[in-house]
Amino acid sequence: MRSAHTSPRSRWVALPIIAVFLWLDHFHLDLFRAVAGDWTGAARTGALALLGYLPHWLVALGMAAVLTRPRDALAALGLDGRPMRALLLGLLLTAPMVAVLAFKAPLTLTADTPHALARHALLPGFGEELLYRGLLFGLLFRLAGWGFLPAALMAALLFGGAHLTQGGQAVEAAGIFAITALGAVWFAWLYVEWDFDLWVPVAFHVLINAWWVVFPVADNALGPLWAVGLRLVIIALSIGVTLAFAKRRGGRRVRGRGWIGVWRHD
Questions:
Q1: How many CB atoms lie within 10 A of CB 124?
Q2: Whole-angstrom Cα distance, residue 52 to residue 47?
Q3: Which domain of life, per UniProt (predicted)?
């Protein structure tokens, strides 16, 4: 959906968007943890999908339907894009990451690997993008009249804060916050510049997490310094390709007042 249905309406729209997001984020995975307990394998993966993520997805779709129109809910969240294009783009641009990880870390495949990929890559990759980029950032930017930077930075601060518990020490926690917050801004920019196609950041998020599962180099989102540098290379490559795509389309979507003020579709 690229029509007036996603043009800025009223800044008051931001209040229900933020309230629903904080409610969902606060109770993230609580029901799953209460029910699944020590479950393993397919039972744990199924419980995570049905109890941990599906309710959030349904609420996000409902919120988008209320703020736009029911038939526009998928488009308002960026789910009307091109998933195969996004997957191919993600595979191409994360290929250097695979090459380096294969050299630096052992390939680790076990009987639980398919479930680990679902629990740590597929479900959170899609779920977090829908919640943080599609719902919070996207609706603030497209409906509430927020500029790109205010909307992206709010989502980035919350996204980085949600990963702080992965750090054991203050320095490590700060590093995790920084890399995940940077990733949040990057994902938001990709989302906008690829014509509000949420599948693009979903593909990058899922694939990066997946390579981290099969080539484990750390038990948190930070990893060693070379792994941080590797992700910065992926970000740089994606920026170059995205700018080339924007040039062919006729120009970047975020420019001028769109960075800090009201964004309008040209």
A1: 19
A2: 7
A3: Bacteria
> Tokens in use for 13?
């729209």
Give me the residue spans of the domains in the chain.
Answer: 4-259
Q: Output the pLDDT for position 94.
A: 97
Question: Token digits for 121?
Answer: 């890559």
* Secondary element (H or E) of residue 160: helix 148-162
pLDDT in tens, 211-247: 999 999 887 778 889 999 999 999 999 999 999 999 9
Helix intervals (H) in 14-135? 14-26, 30-36, 41-47, 54-67, 73-76, 83-104, 113-117, 123-128
- Expressed in percent and rounded to 5, the helix, strand and coil fractions of the chain are 75, 0, 25
Can you tell me the distance from the alpha carbon of 165 to that of 182, in angstroms, rounded to the nearest whole number?
17
Other beta carbons within 10 Å of 127? 23
Burial 50-73 (b: 16+ CB within 10 A, else e): ebbbeebbebbbebbbebbeeebb
Going by pLDDT thresholds of 50, 70 and 90, the confidence category of residue 76 is very high
| Helix (H/G/I), strand (E/B), else coil: 189 | helix
What gap in Å lies between CA 194 and CA 185, rounded to an integer? Answer: 14
